[in-house]
Write a structure and sequence with these properties.
heterodimer, A: 327 residues, alpha/beta, Rossmann fold, six-stranded parallel beta sheet, 11 helices, B: 560 residues, alpha+beta, Heat Shock Protein 90, five-stranded antiparallel beta sheet, 13 helices, 18 strands, 51% helix
Amino acid sequence: MTNKKRRNQLIVGLFCLITLLVGCVKQSATNQTIMLILDSQDSYHSQMIEEGIATAISEYDDVSILKRVPDKKNDSDQQTIYLKEAIDLKVETIIFSAVDIEKNKKELDLIYKKGIKLIMIDSFLSDPYEHKYIGTNNKEAGELAGKAVIQKLGKKAKLGILNFEDRSTSGQEREKEQAFYDFIDQFSTIEIIEKKLSWSDSETVQLLTEEMLDKYPEMDGIVAFNERTTIGAGRAIKIKKLQDEVAVIGFDSQKECIELLENESIDALIVQNPFAIGYLSIQQALNPSENKKIGEPMFTEVEWITKKNMYQSNKEKFLFPFSPYSP
Amino acid sequence: MRSLQVILALALGILSVITILLFSIFLSVIFEETLINQTKITTRQSVTQSSITLTNEIANMNATAYGILDELKKTALQDDQIPELLGTSFRLNRNVVSISLVDEKGKISYYAPSQYTPKKIETIYDQRWFQKEKRNEQITFSSPHVQNLFEKNYQWVLSVTSPVTIQAERYILLIDYNFNSLGSYFNKVTIGKRGYSFIVDEKNRLIYHPQQRIIQTNAKEEKLDFVKDKADGVYVTQDQNNTIAIATIPSTGWKVVGVSYLKDSLQEAVSEIRKNTLWIFLTLAILITLMSISVSRYIARPITNMVKVMRDVNDNKFDVYTHENRFTEIQQLSGSYNHLIDHVKELMVQVKEEQEELRKSEMTVLQAQINPHFLYNTLESILWMSERGNNQGASQMVAALGKLLRISLNKGGNYISISQELAHAQSYLTIQQIRYKNQFQYSIEADESILTNTTIKIIIQPFLENALYHGIERMVDEGSIAIRVLDKKERILIEIEDDGIGISPEILQVIEEGKDSEKGGIGIRNVHQRIQMYFGKEYGVGIESELDKGTIISIWLPKS
């Protein structure tokens, strides 16, 4: 009798305990820390990425973000230090815009082993790891620049190329440039007569371009693969009033780029969507239910913008990012 | 086998838990319904509020436009006054980016503020957003677009246009409003935690969205298809994620759409409730456990007690009573049990007495049977006959005596067949006939069918003895005794009739009365009581007698 009573009480007690445990499930808050490692801070591109990230973060109230940007441009050694810091801090997610992915292989391997979520932006990592890639389709962007050249100059042209210095150039610009060459190679009549490299500011690029234009008066077009070189080339054309003689195909959509496009110093801009890159990277980090397949790169759009189409509904959205906080 | 208490406790516990569960499910369903309705109401209220604000905003724009139009129409207006007029209007309206007058070719003729530099534009009429107006002073609102009028100015604007005739010249008044300040109200609108509202035009194109940029960059999609062609009201999306309220602005046909996240508010409320219900549920569970245990104990206790008491009965202790009076049923049960115990005790005493009585009777029977006098007399008779050389008589008597004694003893058993009983009677009569020198005759008749019937032994002989000693011995003439065994359907009747001197009615009455008591004639009482003890009250011995005529004894027995 007493045995049975005890067993009975035990059953009821167990029942209570189970209820308690069931009630406790799903109670914990999801406070996430994300480390954001960028390649540089002062470019329009990275500013837009940061804006996209900030906008996405504002939709969540339990996320803290640690931003790390090397002081020097394209300092992959500093990025390595940041990656190690992220591992030490045991952050949940790293959003990484790599200067040179080859140099960080060891750390990325460790990150994968530690189970930290890694979202690569703008640099594609062809490895067996299940990292996410979000960014511009550099191949598409390079090809678009090629198409813009063909459309503007026809299949017979002499070109000058402007890009950052080879060794420290970030991977994505190299990729774009390579895609451009691959595209141009189809047309044997298109000649690249000069390649100028510069790692510094737009003023230097402007001077370099002016020099180049003086040296090669027969030059039909200039292709610039990033914001600074685009602005530098545009300014040189404007100063030298060569709008009708030389076509400039550039990248990115800083306000000065747009002004140069409107006064025809620049003929076409290949515009990327850095805001979406930033926004989507956070969305991928925090809301993986809306994910595409892991490992499959997620490309944001690239638009080919000319003076003619810049006020078209779908292009103006790209060119003039709407910001509710600007005046 | 489980104890009553365990079953009761389990049943009560399970029942209460099920009840609570059902009740909570019922409550949560009601709660969810209420919450959904609440969310719907909140969303609708917010949208109504927003639409009123927007209507006011548009009314202001209209008023501004009409104000300027009125000034422009004044006939006294000089051309050089126009820039000043536009400049004043510009300064008075802080959300205005620019005010311009566009001539028929689409070139900007006048503009404010004056510090802007107009672009060299062919015509504004082929700009995407521009809608050709039909008549004078009809105000048209454009969709949002990037202003393409002044150098280095790339603001998102909403254009309000109206044709106007100034001194016979046709112009278009173009007021560009800062799109951001128009929408700034909508940036602040929150419905619940993450809800928001946005504006679409009459063609279901997005006009303003708090997350305009995210949508423009295709990083997010708005449910525009859902809103399309829907009338004003509140809707819940198919996936049950969102509540969507729609309100139309009458002046422009724009729609304000509020989106709230049902799951957010549900989850929030549910987690809040869960925190509390956990404790409530725990407390309830503990209470239920304690209560069901104590209630089951309360109910089962009297029964358990009774079981304990009754267990003593198993050990043959009959001096145990219960006094449980918690429930009527238990009280009745307890009373019945006590009564039963009393009865059992009584019966036991009775059985004891009866056993005693029976033993006494058996003894008496034996004594009566092996009556020493009878034995001496018989043996003397045998002796006497032997001395006289009457060997045949002697051997006959010895045989009869042997038979008599064998049946009397019957190896200690009490039951014999009727034929044996008759043989016993005949042996007795044979002996007595020799002793009384044929002073009487006797006859035995029996229905063949009942000879094998069982009876208790020695029920006839005592009456034969009575008949001989009290009836026939005193007669002068030769007497006779008749024994008849009759089949009376369900019963058997044995009649012993003699034609002796009979019994006087007074003595007969005494005998009749003494049949059931200690007193009275030993013979009849002994047989009568033994028959009743073995076979029941409906059987027994009856006596009829008349003086000088004889006596009839009737013995009733059951058929076996």
